[in-house]
Specification:
Layout lengths: L10 E5 H6 L10 H7 L8 H33 L8 E7 L5 H13 L7 E5 L7 H6 L14 H12 L5 E7 L4 E10 L4 E5 L25 E6 L2 H16 L11 H4 L3 H24 L8 E5 L5 E7 L2
Parallel strand pairs: 2-6, 2-7, 3-6, 7-8
Antiparallel strand pairs: 1-9, 4-5, 8-9
Helix pairs in contact: 3-4, 7-9
Length: 316
Amino acid sequence: MAKRPPARDPYRSFTKDQWSDLRNGQPMTLNADDIDRLRALTDPISLAEAEEIYLPLSRLLAYYVEAIQGLHDVSSRFLNTPGDKVPFIIGVAGSVAVGKSTTSRILRALLSRWPSSPKVDLVTTDGFLYPNKVLEGRDLMQRKGFPESYDRARFVNFLGDIKSGKAKVSVPVYSHLVYDVVPGEEVIIERPDILIVEGLNILQPGELPRDGKPIVFASDFIDFSIYIDADVNDLRDWYLTRFFRLRETAFRDPTSFFRKFSEMSEEEAGNFGRTVWETINLPNLLENVLPTRGRADLILKKGKDHRVEEVKLKRV
């Protein structure tokens, strides 16, 4: 019986050096002070890494934006409809503590400094979490961050409004200090050229209806998706490092939801952090986040030192 040919890898893989070469002479528009300002508390990213990884990525995205806008122009000409520019949406996904926020902020800074000076906005899905009062009523506080803890309908409607060119679209505000959505507070997004959306579960397709009725998922609105990948044990270590760093800083704020953790002994705090990882973050990663990795257009694989070692770009 003839053997089946090996399945074709849907991704092209690049070492850091190979990917860096794809910068193709594009000038770096950020400096070391910018990187220090943009990186997260425990993310060791340097100016050199931003230049090697994110500068070539911004060049790639420039081509994607141009191509998508060209597609919309063709569709508008065919339908004889107004050719208004449609915002380009970039999704950034990955585990807790993997560095989504740093990646998103650096990309926003690089993209906004293109010669065309596009308007680039950044939104995290935290604002679309249900308020704690709702989560408590549904017995979901211990599953915060799982798909069911988000108002997914509101998030999908938000993305739909952005894509339709609505002038002003509101986003709820989430406070990590009080660990809750802030009642009555919103951020208004006004017709960006590019929108970066960062979140754990943004690439999840959801379940399809058995009757074939059309249904829209958040991922349907994303033009280019990035998944930040790392070994599970490294993610655990980074999470605990961040937890202890916050324990010495933000958790000491008297108004912080986590103030009690700053008053624990180091052993007690360590036990608590490990419990949160094992019972909440790890199951969510394995059940919901990691399975979406293969849906991403680009995968950034990090090594133990938190630096990107490999880049995988989906074939088109």
